[in-house]
UniProtKB/TrEMBL annotation:
This is HesA/MoeB/ThiF family protein. It comes from the Bacteria. It holds the Pfam family ThiF. Residues 117-355 form the THIF-type NAD/FAD binding fold domain. Transmembrane segments: none annotated.
């Protein structure tokens, strides 16, 4: 294995070496004998094996045995400063150009046993079922395509209408009257022909309508409207299939999204069991009784629709690659439009007798 120093700036300062990877954070390494600076200088010459690195250090008067050099590399790896040279790219110039920014992003999370190319390869092997290609869903599709997710199944039943153009950028005026999901699939194919995409023009009226769509799927993402229990149907179908779920949407004054990690987190049905009874003589009961009756104009505008899509896509990225743990598993993340888009995390109620997840 040839070890490579990741993108960083470093310089000696007194008896320390300062290392800059992110402008928000300076790593300070003690270096009374100058060996750390010698190590960085040796790695700056280019990727090398342990034996080659030991030789470079010896040239500068730093004589370490192989075990000490390995220990030094492991220390740098624990700080996220080195990676394996051969795993920095996908090995194909065209793919490396296509995924230039994705590879650079994952460089921040890579290490000797977590290659940046592996993260991108996982995305290219992933299959995401997208429910709804309207407001937030259309932006979600664009984000997933940009990440290079290898296979998308898109589900929707609406047609393109003039009112969609305030927030849905997959569509053009020439598409008015056409199936949204067919237009969305065409957009993906034109954007990146290597992405396999399937369009499913279908109403979802219960968990059974999703069963045949979940085979081989790594993640379900999006948002369904039209019925107050649609999110419960999706939750049930996904949890029973053991497929992670990332969903979100908007009320008049809040963006909210959540995820469910089957077998690890509480599910939506758990939280639903804690809702106030419809006949409860309280303000909460009043809200529940009238939630379904409340007909609002769709206030979702372009910047908020794009934020929903990007938040869902970023949580999906956590599940699909494992670069970090999911942040919304078993919780609502609510972004308050009345308070400067301030986010708040509200964990689901855990129901030990949940009929769906069996907790």
């Amino acid at each position: 294995m040839r070890v490579a120093l990741k993108e960083c700036a470093w310089e000696p300062l007194g008896e320390d070496v300062l290392v800059l990877v992110d402008p928000r954070e300076v790593i300070t390494l003690g270096d009374e004998e100058g060996q750390v600076a010698a190590l960085f200088a040796a790695l700056d010459r280019g990727p090398c094996t342990v034996a080659e690195l030991r030789g470079r250090l010896a040239e500068t008067g730093v004589d370490l045995d192989e075990a000490d050099v390995r220990a030094a590399i492991e220390a740098l790896d624990s700080l996220g400063l080195v990676e394996c040279e051969s795993d920095r790219t996908l090995g194909d110039p065209d793919l490396d150009a296509r995924h230039f920014s994705n590879l650079a992003f994952f460089g921040g999370f890579a290490g000797l046993d977590k290659p940046r190319a592996d993260f991108v390869s996982k995305l290219r092997r992933s299959h995401v079922l997208v429910l709804g290609v309207g407001g937030g869903g259309s932006s979600l599709v664009q984000c997933l395509a940009g990440l290079g997710v290898g296979k998308l199944t898109l589900v929707d039943r609406d047609d393109v209408e003039p009112r969609n153009f305030a927030r849905q950028f997959l569509y053009h005026h020439a598409d008015i009257g056409r199936s949204k999901v067919e237009c969305a699939a065409e957009w993906v194919r034109a954007y990146d022909p290597t992405i396999e995409v399937r369009a499913v023009d279908r109403w979802i009226s219960g968990p059974e309508d999703l069963k045949d769509l979940l085979d081989g799927v790594d993640l379900v993402a999006g948002g369904l409207d039209g019925h107050p229990e649609a999110h419960l149907w999706v939750n049930e179908a996904a949890v029973r299939a053991g497929v992670p779920l990332v969903m979100g949407g908007m009320t008049r004054s809040q963006v909210n999204y959540y995820s469910v990690d089957p077998g690890r987190s509480a599910c939506v049905q758990c939280d639903w069991s804690d809702r106030p009874a419809l006949d409860e003589p309280t303000a909460a009961g009043f809200v529940e009784r009238n939630r379904a009756k409340l007909v609002l104009q769709n206030t979702l505008i372009a910047p908020i629709a794009m934020q929903i899509g990007s938040l869902l896509a970023y949580e999906a990225l956590r599940y699909l690659t494992g670069f970090e743990p999911p942040q919304a598993a078993g919780a609502f993340i609510k972004v308050d439009l009345r308070n400067g888009l301030t986010p708040e995390r509200q964990p689901f109620t855990v129901d030990p007798h949940c009929r769906v997840c069996g907790r």
